[in-house]
Amino acid sequence: MTELTLAKAVNSGLRRALADDDRVVLLGEDIGRLGGVFRVTDGLQRDFGTDRVMDMPLAESGIIGMAIGLAYRGFRPVCEIQFDGFIYPAFDQIVAQVAKLHYRTRGAVRMPITIRVPFGGGIGAVEHHSESPEAYFAHTAGLRVVTCSTPQDAHTMIRQAIACDDPVLFFEPKRRYWTKGEVDDGATFPFDKARVVLEGTDVTIVAYGPLVATAIDAAIAASDDGVSIEVIDLRSLSPLDLETVEASVRKTGRLVITHEAAQFGGLGAEIAASITDRCFLHLEAAPVRVTGFDTPYPSARAEEHFLPDLDRILDGVDRALGRASSHSAALLEGAR
Amino acid sequence: MRTTVSTEHAVSDERLEAELPAPPDALVQLLDPQGRRQSDPLYDPFVSDVSDDDLAALYEDMVVVRRIDVEATALQRQGQLGLWPPLLGQEAAQVGSARALRADDFVFSSYRENAVAYCRCVALPAIVEVWRGTAQSGWNPYDVNMATPQIVIGAQTLHAVGYAVGCRHDGVDTATVTYFGDGATTQGDVNEAMVFAASFGAPVVFFCQNNQWAISEPVGLQAQRPIAERAPGFGIPSIRVDGNDVLAVLAATRRALERAHRGDGPTFIEAVTYRMGPHTTSDDPSRYVDPVQKAEWAAKDPITRVEAYLRERGVLTEARAASVAAKADEVAAEFRAGCLALPNPAPLSVFEHVYAEPHAGLERQRAQQEAYLRSIGELEGGAE
Questions:
Q1: pLDDT digits (tens, 9 = 90+) for A155-187
Q2: Residue in B closest to A243 by C-alpha
Q3: What distances in angstroms separate CA A173 from CA A84, A120, B94, one per listed residue?
Q4: pTM beyond cutoff 0.90
């Protein structure tokens, strides 16, 4: 066991993958000498050479398109998209090519490509550096979408993503890059199973990536108030581990889903619909979503007004419990 | 805001335009439209081994692929194909380049390269499967070293660069060839592919068939200058070849492949040709094609000139021409029969091969659909 930051944990996972399999190659902008803008690939080009860790010309579509050709040739490319907001130039290559090639060729061509994306807000960045585009990819057949919330998960899951024969979008919660935690190199767990982070009996909070830590904070705060909250870290967004969420909701009867991404058409909607379908009669209240708004990501000094925080999650918990909340206040306002 | 332009600036702008070099007329040509052999000291050596019989074989390929094209169009008109993209007029560009390839060279093409697929020995029904709609692709790319047709314009050029870089990592001298059209040269992906190929010295041949049309848009909307001129700006040497001259295309492609096999990096070929048919069977070129221009290109037909040359040489006798035509009819009949015999996909096949490893969400959905199909009696016995 070693204590690592989440960024270092991804780095050590990449290092292990490069050492274990000589078909693993890293592609990205500034990932070589600089070690990536977040230093996630620090030292890897020095130790594995420029053929294994390749600095790419500045074109995201080019990076993913080239990774496809390498995968055709039997390599396992790991691409870094420098920031969430820069993935869109590669959208066609990811959605129309990477996702579909195995299907198109009836299984003849595999696309074991990992696409690493630092995502989410909370670091006071300029436009295009704080986005949460995961739903676009979770909506796309042929892709797997995962996100880590702890250094241990970051280390283990990046290795699982690279070993997977399917393409994986690997979302890294950039505001948690500096979070420290113990990392066991040999730890294993199923790649597509959610983790019950905290057990509780009154309300289930489903979170992933950067908001898992916020959900834990909310659970601790609620416990002071006598409310017992179960926190689930989804880890995998496609596929979704609905069984774990269902088991929890059958116990608590109340569900709050939180993510930074906009609400409309997001993961929260999918989970709410699926869980309602699976355990309608066990629900004591309608599922509640606490999410980013259906607006563009705002400027740095306004992001606190956009991001779900501890208080907004607790407000969602109150709503799930049928207590006085912002929603009941608005209803009263309307009735007046 | 500046509202006036000084005379001084206007003069220097004129000078800048004058500094544009005149577009070169040079077009590699070894057989002119009348079938007369043109000598070219640079390219002759690349085809010095091509005998009259070899040329007759290229002639046969072109006659056969044109015949397949006619058959496919007929099948579409008879409701047996959803769509077909004819290659009429582009036989020399495709056959000449494809016949230059080594077996281990790998092809990433667009959707019109049916003659390339034929030359790569793709099974006839496999060529037509996509267009009949029984699958999204017809063959295993590794069986023939050719990826299945790419429909997104230009996307495959990047795949070629990645494959080529992979070959170099593997220490093999395999070349990768990517086919695309004049319209594709406007796409970001094609331009990115050229930057990436140049930066990594990738053993790639960019083979652009400039057939003058992107559906209804003339090449002038994509390029104000010969397309081959763009490549040097990326640091890639280029060749502009008469795309209707199968011998010249063979020579140019061999030259580019030789560079790739030797490890000298990418080459760009612009094969200047003409799409004599519609974009696809859904298109109506009478709305935009100038009949005079089309007639001019008809006089430069790729098959006629080889025929004239071979007749003049006494190689193509009436009997031989008849046997080539008979073979083309045979292939067309086999193509038609193969097409009609393609089975329709089974209901649950839509769930197959989405992922290489089990995906819980999709498996749930598949199970639900299977239960539904059983409930309405659409599935008997096994799941398929």
A1: 999 999 999 999 999 999 999 999 999 999 999
A2: B360
A3: 10, 6, 49
A4: yes
